[in-house]
Amino acid sequence: MVRTPAEDESRQKLLAGNPPQHGTIHSDDDEGCQETTATLQSEDSFSFCGASVFLPKATRQRTLAYLGAVALVAVFVSAVAVVYARRGAISGFGPASETLARNYYQATHDVPYNHQLPLDTILVGSSRTRSSSSLVTDSAAGATAFSCGVKTYNGAIGVFPDGRPCGTVLEAAKAIGYHTGLVATSRITHATPASFASHVSSRGDE
């Protein structure tokens, strides 16, 4: 900040009549910068906008302690934010999320029930329990999936979705000479055991 000789003389008279007290700061602002003049007990100082600011030793120590505490809190908060950001990048996905995405895609794009997403092609050992007609299978379609290895509609007993009979695991075993049988605690014609030994288009025909 540049002053004319007249301004300097006026300022010196003002300071002579009202000298700064110990531990205080006198400042003049000009274009956003602060020029500070003070007579203090300590000669410790720092510069601000090209001017010297003098602080007593105790004040300087408190200031440094405050700045240190603020810096420590800032480091801690940033570290926590980084940790949570990394966790958020790798968590929250699994078979349930993929199943939801698959079902949504099939419903909105009018594709077959057995349509696969790109990620499905790299899965190993997963199982899709839906039937060909519903997101939730029933015991007839579920047992047919076990006995024939095909997905069919709810209510189907040992038949394909088009109603044709499908070969069961018991029929395959019998065809190569094994003796087969069914043991059930329910009726043998109930949907689950029946799907291993019969072929009916509707479980309601029991």
Question: What this model shows, in words?
Answer:
There is one protein chain. The chain has 206 residues and is mostly helical. Among the domains are: 55 residues, no CATH class; 77 residues, no CATH class. The chain is built from 6 helices and 4 strands; from the N terminus they run H-E-E-E-E-H-H-H-H-H. The chain has a two-stranded antiparallel sheet with strand order 1-2. The protein has a two-stranded antiparallel ribbon with strand order 3-4. A hairpin with a 2-residue loop joins strand 1 and strand 2. The longest helix has 34 residues. About 8% of the residues have low confidence. It holds the Pfam family Alk_phosphatase.
